[in-house]
Amino acid sequence: MSARRKHIPLKAQLHAALYQLGFEPHEVDLDHAPALALRPWDEAAQDTVPPASDPRFLIWRPRADHKVKTFGPGGEKRITSAGGDIHAIAHTRRAAKKQEAFRKRLLAKAEGEPPPETKKRKRPIQSRGFGNQPRPFPNQRKDKRS
Questions:
Q1: For a surface tag, which of 10, 16, 82, 87 has the fewest beta carbons within 10 Å of its beta carbon?
Q2: What is the DSSP letter of 61?
Q3: Rounded Cα distance, 30 and 7, in Å
Q4: How far is CA 38 from CA 20, 45, 70, 109, 140, in A?
Q5: What is the DSSP string of 19-58?
Q6: Least trusted range by pLDDT, from 15-19, 46-50, 83-87, 122-126
Q7: Measured in whole angstroms, how far is the alpha carbon of residue 56 from the centre of its chain?
Q8: Is the Cβ–Cβ distance between 59 and 24 less than 8 Å?
């Protein structure tokens, strides 16, 4: 008989740890907190700050909770993404584009270049038309109107 034990695979170790924490391995997801797209980028390290694989910023969440964190309270129904990571990521991208356009306009103005053309209305706003029909007063009874 050999005194040497077989190596326990990392997957089996992980599943054992999840069972001890009260999770079923197929019912949980590993979540980045904060989301990777919301982390600043470090050019020197060519990675996010904190690094993407830093175990201090990886959290095991039940699958339903992970979907709410990612997609917002609407979850899979995708009624709204407000409050979720994808909403925050989209907002950050929109804000960055607007900020970059603003910087370009300021630099062009400082260098004396003409401002870029803005979008103009293609047609004037339609004025409100009043019909020729008499309108009844809202609080007047029908039998008193004449």
A1: 10
A2: E
A3: 25
A4: 32, 17, 12, 32, 60
A5: HHTT--GGGEEEEESS-GGGSPEETTTTEESS-TT-GGGE
A6: 122-126
A7: 22
A8: no
What are the tens digits of pLDDT across the range 36-92? 999 999 999 999 999 998 999 999 999 999 999 998 887 666 677 888 999 999 999
29: phi then psi, degrees, rounded to nearest 5: -130, 150
Tell me the C-alpha distance between 7 and 64, whole Å.
Answer: 34
Phi, psi of 22 (to 5 degrees): 95, 15
In 3D, which of 36, 19, 37 has the Cα closest to residue 28?
Answer: 19
CB under 8 Å to 105, separation ≥6 — which residues?
Answer: 115, 116
Return the residue matching tokens 């309108």.
Answer: 135
Burial (CB count <10 Å: 0-12, 13-18, 19+), residue 72? buried
| Residue 60 DSSP symbol | E
Assess whether pLDDT exceeds 60 at residue 1.
no
Structure-block tokens of residue 107: 């630099």
DSSP 109: H
Token pair listed for 51? 């690094």
Angle in degrees, 0-180, between the axes of helices 85-110 and 63-71, rounded to the nearest 10: 20
